[in-house]
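Hey, weird one. I pasted the Purple acid phosphatase sequence into the form twice and got a warning about non-standard characters only the second time. First submission, copied straight from the form history:
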Amino acid sequence: MKDFKLWMITLTTFLIITKMVVTESQIPTTLDGPFKPVTHRLDPSLRKGSSDLPMDDPRIKRNVTSNFPEQIALAISSPTSVWVSWVTGDAQVGSNLTELDPSSVLSEVWYGKESGKYTSVAKGVSTVYSQLYPFKGLLNYTSGIIHHVRLKGLQPKTKYYYKCGDSSIPAMSGENVFETFPTPSPNSYPHRIAVIGDLGLTSNTTTTIDHLIQNDPSMILMVGDLSYANQYQTTGGKGVPCFSCAFPDAPIRETYQPRWDAWGRFMEPLTSRVPMMVIEGNHEIEPQVSGITFKSYLTRFAVPSVESGSKSNLYYSFNAGGVHFIMLGAYVDYNSTGAQYAWLKKDLDLVDRTVTPWLVAAWHPPWYNSYSSHYQEFECMRQEMEAILYQYGVDIIFSGHVHAYERMNRVYNYTLDPCGPVYIIVGDGGNIEQVDVDFADDPGKCPSAGDNTPEFGGVCHLNFSSGPAKGQFCWNRQPDWSAYRESSFGHGIIEVRS
């Protein structure tokens, strides 16, 4: 059994954690647990949330013209390959739109090991997508041209300089730089991995990202709910914490897709040099006509689904040094008879713990959660998948969805278990829906069994059959499996050491 330490950076704990890092030997590890449950309630003097950034904010305004690249982002493809993605051309919002021609602009990446000296050129694919709402008063959207290029045959632990765009116009980006990860082994790990969930595009979001940049991560794990574009009308109105409350007569929960472009620009200073590995959340579903879902997510982000044997970009895996990451989809079939489960079993069978001794999983909605919000919402998924993750010895599981922080003691089937994973909720990135502050064990805060219906899958709420909460839907105190919970916003930093 391995142990680990996780630095959780939030607005309210940043200085405390910094002091703890200096005296690292005093920080308990997971092997010192299980820990007595601790609750740190939100300071009432702090704001629970903040407003969305306006579209003319300097951090999200478009500052390139015509076919020049913007929204540049990296993603891991394999230990020797990286995806480079970007957007060119003008997105359109209106009633009658004509999609751009992806073949009108080349997808090229020039790269090399020295600044200004590009010894290799890679070419890739490009595409566009549309988000359609043929209803009175609603507006459609068609994207700019989205480019994905895979750089292959890279050397491990090596710095590469690159430009992307179309050299024939010419319309190339400025120079960017990234560093590849070490070869997978039990003694080689990324420097630091940032973990973020439910980020959005608010003033709180900017603080989270500013703190994250200060921590100098070498990879970002984004556990769902990215831009919150579906908190807007397609007419571009002000974002709202509760869409259905503000627009009860809307025939469909339409989205303002330019917020995706704004989010890509906002993240570019970071994602153009640090790979960001994403998994979808409920705000990425974005239903449109003909039952189409996840169109923006599936088109904008390159992930190593094919490389990991997955037939869907909604779940995949990858290695980062001596860590094997499994990214699971909670909003696609997760039943034990389905394709995702079959892929998961095969992926776990292929993991060599002598090469990648750490096994980390991530998906958006948590299985273990003691907040009122989303309490037992994805109990069906837990019942289908928990046993196989336990069987293969998954070490840590990250989720978002609940807009707060909570770290669990090692647990399996709601029972403290020294061989169970440590579950961590980090859904407090700063989005417009604000932080969650109510706990299911607070008097009068236990949801009813009819609450917290998932946006995908069935309802499997249960009363506890044994222990201190026997016969009850909620505990009457902080559960034993909940080690620490805190309602502030921020991000996590995980450092893995041999």
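That's the output from the first submission. The warning seems to come from a hidden character in my clipboard, not from the data itself. The CA atoms of residues 192 and 217 lie 5 Å apart.
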